[in-house]
Amino acid sequence: QFPKSYTLEGRWSCALTEISLTCDFTPRSKRLYLCCDLLQESYVRNTQVNVLRNIEIGTRYRKLQSIEYTHPIHVPVTANHFNSLNLYLRDEDLNIVEFKSNDFHCVLHFKKGWAP
Known about the structure:
Shape: globular
Helix content: under 10%
Distance between the termini: 29 Å
Number of helices: 0
Low-confidence stretches: none
Order of helices and strands: EEEEEEEEEEE
Mean pLDDT: 84
Radius of gyration: 15 Å
């Protein structure tokens, strides 16, 4: 929830530039999908989801995951007026990942002027 509402004029895109999370769960797969309700849907495993970025957990499980993306991937924003943002992680089977703690932080980059 933001302290005020935002209105985006024109076409916009969003990218994940940093993510940090404490995995208080043991991942069953090597990939997680960060989803955001403001974005255009795409297909993952024949299912439409609002994927912002797929996150590679790696071959060695670490409790703390911290990744900085130097080449962010921008996804079209479909909501032009909002006062909240819902981010959630899905596992490789597209099940929502539940955290026991709130130790999940990310930095998003919004860019104006996205064209199909």
